[in-house]
Design brief:
The chain has 131 residues and is an alpha+beta fold. The chain contains 3 helices and 5 strands; from the N terminus they run E-E-E-E-E-H-H-H. A 5-stranded antiparallel β-sheet has the order 3-2-1-4-5, with no helix packed on it.
C-alpha cells in the first residue's frame, strides 16, 4: 500500500489531498477515513489504497500511521476549559444523549442530525478528560 502525508483536509467539506511518498497527490474523501475519524491533520503520515477516479487517483481505506503532535501536553493542560464551562458542556451532552437513547429505545438508530453533533461533543469531552 502507498504511504504519504496529509497535504490538507477540510472536515466541513469532507475531502482533501494526500501527498504520496513517491510523488504526486491523491484525492481523499471522508468515506475513505478510518471508522470514527472525521478529519485528518496536515502532515500526518498515512497509508492508503489507490483507485483511479474520474479526475485521477483517489485514496481508499486510509490508515493514520503517525499523527503530528502540534501541542505539548503541558500546553494543552494550560488551555483546559474552566470547570464551570465544562458543567455546561456535560449538561448539553446529557440532553443530546437522552435524545439518542430515545431513538434506540424505539428500535431505530438516531438520525445524522442528532448523531453527528453528539459524536463531536463526545470526542471533545474525551479529549478534555484525557488531559
Amino acid at each position: 500500500m502507498p504511504t504519504g502525508k496529509v497535504k490538507w483536509y477540510d472536515a466541513d467539506k469532507g475531502f482533501g489531498f494526500l501527498s504520496k511518498d513517491e510523488g504526486g497527490d491523491v484525492y481523499v474523501r471522508a468515506e475513505a477515513l478510518p471508522a470514527g475519524t472525521t478529519s485528518l491533520k496536515s502532515g500526518a503520515r498515512v497509508e492508503f489504497g489507490v483507485a483511479q477516479g474520474q479526475r485521477g487517483d483517489q485514496a481508499l481505506q486510509v490508515r493514520v500511521l503517525d499523527a503530528p503532535t502540534s501541542v505539548s501536553r503541558s500546553q494543552a493542560k494550560a488551555r483546559r476549559k474552566q470547570p464551570e464551562d465544562m458543567v455546561v458542556i456535560v449538561e448539553d451532552l446529557i440532553t443530546l444523549l437522552d435524545g439518542i437513547e430515545e431513538a434506540y429505545r424505539h428500535g431505530r438508530h438516531p438520525d445524522a442530525k442528532a448523531a453527528q453533533p453528539t459524536a463531536a461533543l463526545l470526542r471533545a469531552l474525551a479529549d478534555e478528560l484525557s488531559l
